[in-house]
Amino acid sequence: MEAMLQPVADFFGPTWPAVWTLVKIVAIIAPLMIAVAYLTLAERKVIGFMQVRIGPNRVGPWGLLQPIADGVKLLFKEIIVPSGANKGLFILGPILAIAPSLAAWAVIPFDDGLVLANVNAGLLFLLAITSMEVYGVIIAGWASNSKYPFLGSMRAAAQMVSYEVSMGFALICVLLISASLNLTDIVTSQGQGRFADMGLGFLSWNWLPLLPMFVVYVISGIAETNRAPFDVVEGEAEVVAGHMVEYSGMTFALFFLAEYANMILVSILTSVLFLGGWLSPVGFLPDGFHWLALKTAFILLLFLWARATFPRFRYDHIMRLGWKVFIPVTLVWVFVVAVWMMSPLSIWS
Amino acid sequence: MEFKTFVFYFLAVIMVFAALRVITARNPVHAALFLVLTFFNAGGIWLLLQAEFLAITLVMVYVGAVMVLFLFVVMMLDINLDRIREGFWSYLPVGALVGILMLVEMVMVLGGSYFGLEAMPAPPTAGEGFSNTRELGRVLYTDYVYPFELASLVLLVAMVAAVALTLRKRKGIKYMHPSDQVAVKREGRVELVKMQAEKED
Q1: Which residue segment(s) compose the domain that B142 sits in?
Q2: How much is the mean pLDDT over chain B?
Q3: Among A93, A189, A225, B161, which has the minimal tally of Cβ within 10 Å of its Cβ?
Q4: Does B22 reside within a domain?
Q5: Total count of domains within chain B
């Protein structure tokens, strides 16, 4: 690979590192965008099957061209800026919504050594970047100069800040037992232990010793991405569509893309932190990227399943779950894990 | 010019500009957003100094949490700028005096013999496996454990005080406990009564 790329590297000279990084970024973002497009189709199909419907089946075979038709439709629509809106911030809102959900992919390890930036503080970087996601929603809601978007953005601010805390505590447990902030190290540390030596790797992953944290993380992830049953931010029965009311065309599409990109991000993070990333569940099968894709797809199915199953939460119930249930549970479990690690019964040494 | 120097000036110029706009912007929401930009660039400069833990924590805590709540409050306030600017000229002498005092102090500290390149040479670049987080954690929980615990206690007291100040029990409001609502059983709500079919003759 290195020798093959040498002539190209010579052609670009000193700008080669920047060019090569850009190529890698495109290699991550382009498949991601295709995955986002087909996740929207998968959602409609899966929920359709769960509700004994067919789902989209008109555009292309089995409706496979539906996301492309949707995209083209949104591209050609006019972008309307409301007359009382704050124009600069109105345009900045959707951009700030999608930028963090793309930037976070810089530190996601897809396979052993297959990562754009193998930084030491990868987990911290992820926490910081994902905490930026709320700005897009808040700015969009305020800049629209309209009541429903504003109410939606207020809800978003309160909800995302609340669930970030319990998510943070869940991550603290993970980094306690893997003793590293580097995501590649977190995955490789899950491949060690008594069960992994017996060839039953899936029992050594973090989900089993940290089961309460795993549940809290998945549920908080659904809340953090504003997905049903926590989608009061855009609850159409209460605030029409929340922060997206005044947006049309491509600006709306950016919010849409950001939501699904965030879903994929949370799913892949859950797989990396709790389900052993690219590690194979059993000893006799080789590790590889396909395992990570499979685990991510499973968590994504959970997202869709939850949406098809549960009715929307009432807002005070959401706040109660975040502050009065999840935060005490996670606080206690951080303490339990810390004591467990120091006791002679520790399984991480 | 070295690439690192270029990055520093790039971040520093944006940071100073954003910091100036925080105090000159007419719209309070714009001012808060410029403060976010300032924090972000400060984080970038810290990253240049190889303090990745502090840089990321700055973004996480201030940008991700504090400023969100700040915006939350600022957006809901109806701030009338003309009313705030009414006393500008009468406050100007006092304000200018405080500003000049602070400037003099800063010049005395930064320009004196304590902060020059001779007094504080650039730290050696960290090795390959150096972890800023591990280093900070070790120092915080060993050498400085008492000041650290004391600071956390002060924060806890502040939190309790804030809750105690704002907590009000209003009487006569119809409030339902979510835990009661969650625990509702079918037997408590629905009663099925068996009765004969009524016929009209």
Answers
A1: 130-166
A2: 85
A3: B161
A4: yes
A5: 2
The whole-number pLDDT of residue B128 equals 67
> Average pLDDT for residues B3-25, to the nearest whole number?
90
Q: Give residue A87's identity as a one-letter amino acid code.
A: K
The neighbour count for residue A139, using CB atoms within 10 Å, is 27
Asked if residue B73 and residue B142 are part of one domain, the reply reads no
Q: Residue A240: exposed, middle, or buried by beta-carbon count in 10 A (0-12, 13-18, 19+)? A: middle
Residue B20 one-letter amino acid = L
In a domain, B25, yes or no: yes
Residue of A nearest to B63 (CA): A132
Taking CB atoms and an 8 Å cutoff, what residues of chain B touch A164?
Answer: 64-65
> How far is the C-alpha of A108 from the C-alpha of A280, rounded, in Å?
18
pLDDT at residue number B158: 95
| Within-domain flag for B159 | yes
CA distance B67 to chain A (A): 10
- Which chain B residue has its CA at the smallest distance from A163's CA? B65
| DSSP state, residue B143 | T
Q: pLDDT exceeding 70 applies to what percent of chain B? A: 96
Could you tell me if the ipTM is greater than 0.85?
no
pLDDT tens-digit profile of B26-69? 888 888 899 999 998 999 998 888 888 888 888 888 888 888 88
Of the candidates A278, A313, A282, A336, which has an alpha carbon nearest to the alpha carbon of residue A113?
A278
B132 and A121 within 8 Å at the Cβ level: the answer is yes
pLDDT of residue B80: 67
What is the model's pTM?
A: 0.85
- Residue ranges in chain A whose pLDDT is less than 50: none
Contacts of B133 in chain A (CB under 8 A): 120-121, 124, 181
* Phi-psi group of B172: left, alpha or beta (phi > 0 → left; psi -120 to 50 → alpha; rest → beta): left
Q: Which of A66, A72, A60 is nearest to A42 (CA)?
A: A66
Q: Does residue B94 fall inside a structural domain?
A: no
Q: CA of B196 to nearest chain A CA: how many angstroms apart?
A: 37
What pLDDT is attached to residue A290? 87
Report domain extents, chain A.
1-76, 81-342
For residue A132, give the nearest of B64, B71, B133 by CB distance: B64
CB pairs under 8 A between A and B: 71
